[in-house]
Design goal:
Layout lengths: L2 E8 L5 E3 L2 H11 L3 E6 L5 E5 H12 L5 H11 L3 E4 L5 E3 L2 H7 L4 E8 L1 E6 H17 L1 H7 L2
Antiparallel strand pairs: 1-7, 2-6, 3-4, 3-5, 4-8, 7-8
């Protein structure tokens, strides 16, 4: 089972963002819990991982030899990560530092990306999508080879 779909939503003034019920069901069915680890991503948004996948990815960083790459991975992804539980309304509280990174103010887009969930401001989601369209237009055979 994988996360799939784009959902337009909002984040409240306290920083609570609603995660689609289907995504919460997938978490409960596949992982037996409703918790996510939320951190920064390179596209100017946030990535939210089921705890077991997060632990695997974090261990990958731990296994890197000491040095600048390991330090960079810690600073950019591991250090800002926060475990988030759902409230009764299916919302997670996103810390202010992560909201600022992703410029989350009101309108957000929650995107299923197979093994993780991404969260963007509405404007950043449009920008990231346009970048993906440009990438595909440079090599349309790529999508054709995938069957699309």
């Amino acid at each position: 089972m994988s996360f799939q779909g784009e959902f337009y939503n909002s984040i409240d003034p306290k920083g609570r963002a609603s995660i689609p019920a289907r995504f919460r069901e997938i978490l409960a069915e596949a992982h037996g819990e409703e918790r996510l680890v939320v951190t920064k991503n390179w596209d100017g948004g946030l990535s939210a991982y089921p705890v077991p996948l997060w632990e695997k990815n974090r261990q990958n960083v731990e296994n890197l030899p000491p040095g600048p790459q390991r330090n960079a991975a810690y600073r950019l992804v591991v250090a800002p990560a926060t475990e988030c539980s759902f409230d009764k309304q299916g919302r997670i509280l996103i810390p202010e530092s992560l909201r600022l990174h992703a410029n989350l103010e009101r309108d957000i887009v929650v995107v299923g990306m197979s093994d993780r969930i991404e969260i963007y401001s509405k404007d950043k989601h449009a920008e990231v999508t346009e970048t993906a369209v440009s990438f595909v237009q440079e090599d349309p055979q790529f999508m054709s080879d995938l069957g699309f």
